[in-house]
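Working notes for the structural subgroup meeting. M.R. asked for a predicted model of this chain before we commit to crystallization trials. I am recording the input and output together here so anyone reviewing the notebook later can reproduce the run.

Input as submitted:
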Amino acid sequence: MTVTAEGVENAEQLELLRGMGCDELQGFHLGRPVPAESLHEALARGAAGLAPANL
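Returned structure, recorded in token form:
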């Protein structure tokens, strides 16, 4: 079963969930919502800038 954790708000939660073996993570700590047009543009550039560099 693939486990997805939603609502990751800070680095402490991120590390805890990684340590628990969560397969997928999402939340404001990993990236803010963006309009579809911005997402398409970012993916065309290789998704640079969508997630914090320290992850």
